[in-house]
């Protein structure tokens, strides 16, 4: 039995009507990941990757995120979720393979039970999701990855304002790296990169999403 996108979306509390309409800009879908999502729509390599985690919760979250991705992509592509094929670009960044190559750009971020998917018809896209929280070693990470000006501004803040600003910079960096197909170690203080447009979206649950186009 072939599973359609509407059936898969229902596992995440979504319907085709609740998904954003795609025009010229980037849109996103974000949900908490449920447990025990059926994996029938995944291909062999995805199932092998899930098994390789060795940890049941991590495997479930990986499986759920990939099922969600197939459900969302198939909605926009007008195909069956299981028929979607992927190729890899720089540093393993996934992209659509034939017969849907070039029809839609996407990126996925998964963190502690939440998943965000960014979508764009016209441009490559990168996304990162993080929970805004107190973080040990914040200044050390900032000194390595952020510009001198960003570090100066960050050090003038305290409390919640400092946490918010750190994760705004961090998610922007992660999303930008993913947009360009770079590893974080290759970033070289990209927080001041003017060639990309980064938007931030706060969720009421305390999570932050950055999308780079």
Automatic annotation (TrEMBL):
Entries under Gene3D superfamilies matching the protein: 4'-phosphopantetheinyl transferase domain (3.90.470.20)
Lineage: superkingdom: Bacteria
Organism placement in taxonomy: Bacteria, Pseudomonadati, Pseudomonadota, Betaproteobacteria, Nitrosomonadales
InterPro entries cross-referenced by the UniProt entry: 4-PPantetheinyl_Trfase_dom, 4-PPantetheinyl_Trfase_dom_sf, AASDHPPT_N, P-Pant_transferase_sf
The name this protein goes by in its record: 4'-phosphopantetheinyl transferase
UniProt organism field: Sulfuriferula multivorans
Family affiliation: Belongs to the P-Pant transferase superfamily. Gsp/Sfp/HetI/AcpT family.
Pfam families: AASDHPPT_N, ACPS
GO molecular function term, any single one: magnesium ion binding
Keywords, alphabetical: Transferase
GO BP terms, alphabetized: lysine biosynthetic process via aminoadipic acid
């Amino acid at each position: 039995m072939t599973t359609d996108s509407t059936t898969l979306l229902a596992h995440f509390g979504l319907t085709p009507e609740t998904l954003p309409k795609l025009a010229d800009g980037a849109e996103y879908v974000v949900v908490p990941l449920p447990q025990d999502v059926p994996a029938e729509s995944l291909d062999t390599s995805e199932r092998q990757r899930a098994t390789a985690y060795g940890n049941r919760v991590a495997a479930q979250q990986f499986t759920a995120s990939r099922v969600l991705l197939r459900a969302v992509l198939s909605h926009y592509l007008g195909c069956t979720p299981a028929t979607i094929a992927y190729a890899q670009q720089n540093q393993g960044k996934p992209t659509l393979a034939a017969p849907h190559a070039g029809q839609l750009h996407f990126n996925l971020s998964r963190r502690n039970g939440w998943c965000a998917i960014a979508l764009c018809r016209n441009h490559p896209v990168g996304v990162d999701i993080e929970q805004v929280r107190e973080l040990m070693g914040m200044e050390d990470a900032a000194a390595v990855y952020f510009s001198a000006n960003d570090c100066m501004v960050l050090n003038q803040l305290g409390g919640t304002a400092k946490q918010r600003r750190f994760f705004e910079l961090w998610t922007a960096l992660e999303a930008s790296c993913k947009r360009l197909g770079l590893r974080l170690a290759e970033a070289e203080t990209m927080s001041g990169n003017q060639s990309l447009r980064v938007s931030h979206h706060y969720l009421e649950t305390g999570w932050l999403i950055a999308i780079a186009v």
